[in-house]
Amino acid sequence: MKLICLDDDPRMEPALRRFARQLGHEVQFHTASATFKAQIKRQAPDLVLLDLSLGQESGIDIIAWLAEAQVQVPIVLLSGQGDDLLDTARRIATASGILVLGAVSKGQLVRDLPPLLAERSGSAQPRLIRPAAAPHLTSDELDRYIREGRIEPYFQPIVSAADRQLRGAEVLARLRLPSGQILGAPAFIPLAEAAGLILPLTAALFTRIITLASQLEPLHLEFLAVNLSAATLEQQPTIALVRSLIEGLAGRCHVRVELTETARIADSQPVRELAAQVSLLGASLAVDDFGTGYSSIRALTELPFDTLKVDLSFVAEMFDSAKAMKMLIAIIALGHGLGLKVVAEGVETEAQRRVLIEHGADLLQGYLFGRPMNILEFVQTQGAARGAADQAA
Length: 393
Ligand code: C2E
Ligand code: CA
Ligand code: CA
Fold this sequence. Notes:
Helix 8 packs parallel to helix 10 (237-249). 46% of the residues lie in helices and 20% in strands. By secondary structure, the chain is of the alpha/beta class. The protein has helices at 12-23, 33-42, 59-68, 83-95, 109-122, 139-147, 189-194, 198-216, 230-233, 237-249, 262-265, 269-280, 297-302, 312-317, 322-337, 350-358, 375-392, and strands at residues 2-6, 26-30, 47-51, 75-79, 100-105, 151-160, 166-176, 182-183, 223-228, 254-259, 284-290, 307-310, 341-344, 363-365. The protein folds into 2 domains: 2-121, Rossmann fold, CATH 3.40.50.2300; 139-392, Alpha-Beta Barrel (TIM Barrel), CATH 3.20.20.450. One calcium ion (CA) binds next to loops.
């Protein structure tokens, strides 16, 4: 494999050459960006090692140049100025479409760089997997589909962090097209919100949940979590919808209402009233996607939340970004400090689960425990898991 390194500090060269030799890689070392660029244009390497502070031009300029020149080469970022800067640079590069294999603090070069180079030589070129394009949907079609009963609840397990036992589920809306194709929420929820169809959609979804509720009984769920769009919170019928869901579940399990975009709604009187009513009806209230720009700490102090869902980006990034990890730990502590249950979503790996348990997350949700499933699959897989656990006990 051919590596090209750009670093204005020539003391880097011997260390880099040593690592590369051990792994059988070839290295070109540049201290000036002009020769570096010329070389890249002549022949693209397999990997670029890029220092962020370069004297004249900075590593950020080089990232912009690589993106502009559409050089399709993965990079490893280096910096002597700490993890925070590396983290921001990694985000800049990724957002410009550059594949960043890692970010290495020069203080940890000996520990962190060789594994990155070794990993690279063994692995195939990463492929970009494009999701199948969602068919374009008009608001008239969506309106018709809602009335035809094509909105389906999918159920994603939520387990207790300590023992992986099933505790509840989040209901995620899906749209079953006449062709049989199932559309994910991002393909129609924003349209429903924009076209004023989110209330009828939510009503259709809740009705369907109530119809299916008896099938969930063997699972002994503690709660079902549903999402309410910010757009519906100030509308009068919403509270009646929540009440109908609570009554429709008839004590089979609790209802948890997840609110997102709390930054926009925190100081709205109708939203306060809704939140208070929901709590009085005995439902629990969760702040969703906490930690994104759409959620607010203000809302936590003003509304009667009992549950905090950490935004899944913190879980996804915990091992790539020291800051994301620190923030995740701080958010869990903040939630507990306020007496809230903390749910971490987007948990995909055992390693993530271990960190979350260590820092005291109460409930976990993510592909590690199950994807959102239709009712049949949900009852089958989770019932089987429960049976196995009961037998083991
Ligand atoms: P959300 O409420 O934050 O839901 C979590 C999303 O993360 C879901 O996407 C879920 O499928 C996905 N997810 C779960 N586990 C993992 C994981 O391990 N890794 C990754 N990468 N993703 C995971 P989905 O179902 O596409 O829903 C997207 C958003 O659409 C939801 O975000 C929610 O804001 C909205 N939505 C879904 N159903 C409804 C609904 O019935 N009403 C309203 N108002 N919004 C809904
Ligand atoms: Ca949610
Ligand atoms: Ca969320």
